[in-house]
Amino acid sequence: MAKSRDTFNKKEKEKLKQKKKQEKQDRKDARKSEEKSSGFEDMIAYVDEYGNIVDTPPDPTKKREEIDVDSIEIGVPKYAASEDDGASVRKGKVTFFNESKGYGFIKDEQTQESIFVHINGCLDKIQENDKVTFETEKTPKGLSAISVKLV
């Protein structure tokens, strides 16, 4: 008796191929059998009052919210000066000051933030650990102390 040339592994691979082919044919038949409704009504989408896309039309009996047109701001609102923009005199302590370079930093007593100070903004000669009063101004790099006086 002659031995078959098909090994077990070859037979298993062939079975898998046939199974996949059959599954593919079943899926194809299922797609064809489904009814496709490609009517105009199925393609329409509506937007509800919250901006979500839904398939149901809006309810005409529902009361709409009225919006005051004048209350809508287009663009960036104008800058309103706040009380923190340097209008008030602040107190602080000089934490660092380099006389050769002419700049330093003052730690504000209330906010504990470090504020830059340049020698041009000083009215008195200051050193490290001095108690000072100052005003602030907004610069492109942040707050800067001006009108610095010793206490």
UniProtKB/TrEMBL annotation:
Bias-annotated ranges (Basic and acidic residues): 1-15, 23-39
Annotated CSD domain residues: 89-150
InterPro entries per record: CSD (IPR011129), CSP_DNA-bd (IPR002059), NA-bd_OB-fold (IPR012340)
Record field: transmembrane: none
Region of interest: Disordered: 1-40
A Pfam family the protein falls into: CSD
Name of protein: Cold shock domain-containing protein
Organism: Belliella filtrata
